Amino acid sequence: MKDSFPGIAAVPLRLMRKAEPLVFSGMRLVPFAPQKLLLENLLKQLLLEPMADGDLDFLTGRVLRIFVTDAGIGWRISYTGEQLEILPPAGAFDAAISGGIRAFLLLASRQEDPDSLFFRRKLCIEGDTELGLEAKNLLDSVELERLPLPVQHALQGAGKLAALSST
Predict the structure, then answer these.
(1) pLDDT tens for residues 114-158?
(2) Residue 22 phi, psi (nearest 5)
(3) Helix (H) or strand (E) holding 167
(4) Opening angle at CA 28, ends 27 and 32, nearest 5
(5) Of residues 26 and 55, which shows the higher confidence score?
(6) Tell me: the pLDDT tens digits for 58-75?
(7) Rounded CA gap, 146 and 108, in Å?
(8) How far apart are CA 151 and CA 3, in angstroms?
(9) Res 120: pLDDT
(10) Dihedral sign from CA coordinates of 63, 64, 67, 73
(11) Distance from the Cα of residue 91 to its chain's centroid
(12) Structural domain boundaries in the chain
């Protein structure tokens, strides 16, 4: 296994692994309002075309919970038929997708096939499995090119790092 990730100034992976708990605990300290604003803006850009095509109708009036287990953070997502709504993680939901941050980074950056992440139980669906699978399929079909270039680069770099550190 390589000891460093090219492009991140040869920071040793073991040092990055030791820093992960600090980063994750810091993520929990970010108030919900900035998280909501950031997520709503990113998801609007990412899902603009699918929303226009009616591909999010399966989520209308329903709630999907996303929970990052090792970071201890999450959100609930609902759709009104016109816009996505990001809700605090506590509360009722119809389906939930949960897993570690590495698994979500691998999924989001397309470094790994989503089906293999679920098959290997890196990501789990609970509640209404059909709703969870529709959400997974939607996320797998969106074009990452809709995101701002800096976000694309950050996502790709984080995904590559997650792929390296999960070996």
Answers:
(1) 889 989 999 999 999 999 989 988 887 878 887 788 888 888 887
(2) -65, -45
(3) none
(4) 100
(5) 55
(6) 999 999 999 999 888 899
(7) 13
(8) 25
(9) 92
(10) negative
(11) 19
(12) 31-165
Please say whether the beta carbons of 110 and 46 come within 8 A: no
User: How far apart, in Å, are the Cα atoms of 33 and each of 65, 84, 85, 96, 151?
Assistant: 17, 15, 12, 21, 20
pLDDT of 49 higher than 70: yes
Between the CA of residue 47 and those of 128, 146, 167, what are the distances in Å? 22, 8, 31
Does domain 31-165 match CATH 3.30.1050.10?
Answer: yes
- Token pair 């609970």 is at which residue? 126
Q: In the numeric block, which tokens belong to residue 148?
A: 């701002």
117 CB contacts (<8 Å, ≥6 apart)?
99, 103, 106, 107, 123
Cβ–Cβ < 8 Å for 50, 56:
yes
CA-CA-CA-CA torsion for 155, 146, 44, 95, nearest 10 degrees? -60
Say which residue, 1 or 122, is predicted with more confidence: 122
